[in-house]
Design goal:
The complex is a heterodimer of chains A (about 280) and B (about 260).
Chain A (H helix, E strand, L loop, with lengths): L3 E11 L5 E11 L3 E6 L5 H8 L7 E6 L2 E2 L4 H10 E4 L12 H11 L4 H14 L15 H13 L5 E5 L7 H16 L3 E5 L3 H7 L2 E6 L2 E6 L8 H6 L6 H11 L13 H7 L2
Parallel strand pairs in A: 3-8, 3-9, 6-7, 7-8
Antiparallel strand pairs in A: 1-2, 1-4, 4-5, 9-10
Chain B lengths: L2 H7 L8 H18 L2 H18 L4 H9 L2 H12 L1 E4 L7 E7 L2 E6 H27 L2 H10 L4 H30 L6 H32 L17 H20 L5
Antiparallel strand pairs in B: 1-3, 2-3
Helix pairs in contact in B: 2-3, 2-6, 2-10, 3-6, 3-10, 5-6, 7-8, 8-9
Organism (chain A): Peribacillus asahii
Family (chain A): Belongs to the ABC transporter superfamily.
Function (chain A): Part of an ABC transporter complex. Responsible for energy coupling to the transport system.
Chain lengths: ~280, ~260
């Protein structure tokens, strides 16, 4: 039986200005999954993420974390946030310290770890995100891509069980997007749960165990990463494209240029292997 | 970005322990200000400038530019000290230069020149001490020392976040300005004023947005009461301490030798 991390029931969120960002949303997130959240701009992805970290409180509905009702007192939020780390979309709103190493150590220091453990975690996180060479730089000397990696390192160093990333690859070049994919693969092997929002369907298709499609505050789809791309109406509604691997495979299958065996190819390599 | 800030991170003395640099700069500063002695000020200025230019390798041109910054205030202060005026009937000793018009005369006395020279030297020596500190020591290194000295955490956090936000706002303001300028927002005086107003108001909105986002981000990383970090690693060096002691002792000795009293 898969352990349930989050169970969201009938969650509605209305901002003070009256816009409803989430409408009666129900969702279960299992332990150890790689989940990609797709959706057009303004679909409510960031709002949903902020709920998972206890930053926002539901207008109606409930959120259970490991079977326990999320409470918004200091103590509960502290335990929640130790286990759920969130990397925000705009690194400038997350980074504030004098230099890179200090900023990365901010989270771990709040966890009351020993000095050695903090040092070890910070070193490790810097290596993973390739920012070790930048460690003495002040934040305002960094480029957007570098800031983004430092922001990820800051959460990585806290070693949370659930990793939430709001558009981690936005603003990064191909090399560093790939780098982040590798980091995500590595941390996932340590039995972590990863939830990320992205506009990159190609990446989501290749990487995710589950895909969630959101539009206008509602979940349109939650399931395996292949089925969703057969559903043209849904793709249109959520402004999604088909991943090129998927689309190419579809075309080749139609023209009988691809061996029709097993599941749809999910990556470039899998596709090339199936070519006749 | 701000050049003065950039040098603080990329100078040749950045690896020196901040406590050493702060002791050195602050001692010389306080000594020069307390004794207000011409020779002490001259030596302090020379020593600090040497450390800044030769030690930290800050370009001479940039350093001179920085020294000229307080020049305006200095000049306006000096003029009023140097030039005196009185009625022509007053006798004034040791006049170097005077001009009379009507019942009044403007004049400069030897004594005034002395006071003014002393003032200029004291000002130059003190700002050279402060420039030494700002040009060689990053803000976060100074804050690290202040933390060790048990300065109230609240004050340090305010300085720290203010420092970070200076750059966030400079950047935001620059982006808004560029966006406006590229759409011809600053072509005429009227448009210029209008665009500037828009820039300032959107910067204000940005302040609140940023502050809110930062609070959220800090909370989600487990912020409770104090901002804590692992400290940057600086090594104390015996050689540095010896150099600092020798310089300080020499200056004090010179002062005493030339008739000063402590």
């Amino acid at each position: 039986m898969d352990e349930l991390f989050f169970k969201i029931d009938q969650l509605t969120h209305r901002y003070v200005d009256g816009t409803t960002a989430l409408k009666n949303l129900s969702l279960s997130i299992k332990k150890g999954k790689k989940i990609a959240l797709l959706g057009n701009n303004g679909a409510g992805k960031s709002t949903l993420f902020q709920h998972l970290n206890g930053i926002l409180q539901p207008t109606t509905g409930s959120i259970l974390f490991k079977g326990e009702q999320v409470r918004y007192n200091r103590k509960f939020l502290m335990t929640l946030r130790k286990q759920v780390g969130i990397v925000f979309q705009d690194p400038d709103s997350q980074l504030f310290s004098g230099n890179v190493r200090q900023d990365i150590s901010f989270g771990p220091m709040n966890l009351d770890w020993s000095q050695e453990k903090v040092h070890k975690q910070v070193e490790w996180a810097m290596e993973q995100t390739e920012v070790t060479a930048l460690q003495d730089r002040p934040i305002h000397f960094l480029s957007l891509g570098q800031k983004k990696r430092v922001a990820i390192a800051g959460v990585l160093a806290m070693n949370p069980e659930v990793f939430i990333l709001d558009e981690p690859s936005a603003g990064l070049d191909a090399y560093y997007s790939k780098q982040i994919m590798h980091i995500l693969r590595d941390i996932h092997q340590g039995d972590k749960t990863i939830i990320l929002s992205t506009h990159d369907v190609h990446f989501a298709y290749e990487w995710a165990d589950e895909i969630i499609v959101m539009s206008d505050g509602e979940i349109l789809y939650h399931g395996d990463p292949v089925t969703v791309f057969y559903n043209e109406a849904l793709l249109n509604q959520a402004h999604l494209e088909k991943p090129w691997v998927f689309e190419t495979a579809q075309q080749l299958l139609e023209k009988q240029l691809l061996r029709d065996e097993g599941p749809m190819p999910r990556s470039k390599e899998e596709l090339f292997q199936l070519l006749k | 970005m701000l050049l003065i800030d950039k040098y603080a991170y990329f100078n040749r003395l950045k690896h020196i322990h901040p406590v050493e640099k702060m002791t050195f700069a602050l001692f010389l500063l306080l000594f020069a200000l307390t004794v207000k002695d011409t020779i002490v000020s001259l030596i302090t200025f020379a020593v600090m400038s040497a450390f800044i230019i030769l030690g930290a390798k800050i370009p001479l041109r940039y350093y001179i530019k920085l020294l000229l910054l307080p020049g305006f205030f200095l000049l306006s202060g000096i003029l009023t000290i140097v030039i005196s005026f009185a009625s022509i009937k007053t006798t004034t000793p040791h006049v170097l230069w005077s001009v009379e018009f009507g019942y009044w005369k403007l004049f400069i006395t030897e004594n005034n020149i002395k006071i003014a020279t002393k003032l200029i030297l004291v000002v130059l020596s003190s700002i050279s001490c402060l420039y030494f500190l700002t040009l060689t020591t990053p803000v976060n290194a100074i804050l690290q020392v202040l933390r060790k000295l048990k300065v109230p955490q609240l004050l340090i956090e305010i300085i720290e976040i203010t420092y970070r936000f200076i750059f966030v706002f400079l950047e935001t303001a620059l982006h808004i300005y560029q966006a406006q300028n590229s759409r011809l927002g600053y072509m005429t005086m009227k448009k210029w004023l209008h665009s500037l107003g828009l820039l300032i108001s959107s910067l204000f909105i940005n302040v609140f947005k940023r502050a809110k986002e930062l609070t959220i981000a800090m909370d989600s990383r487990g912020y409770t009461e104090d901002i804590m970090y692992i400290d940057d690693n600086y090594q104390y060096s015996a050689v540095n301490w010896i150099i600092i002691t020798i310089i300080i002792a020499s200056i004090v000795a010179v002062y005493l030798l030339f008739g000063g009293t402590l």
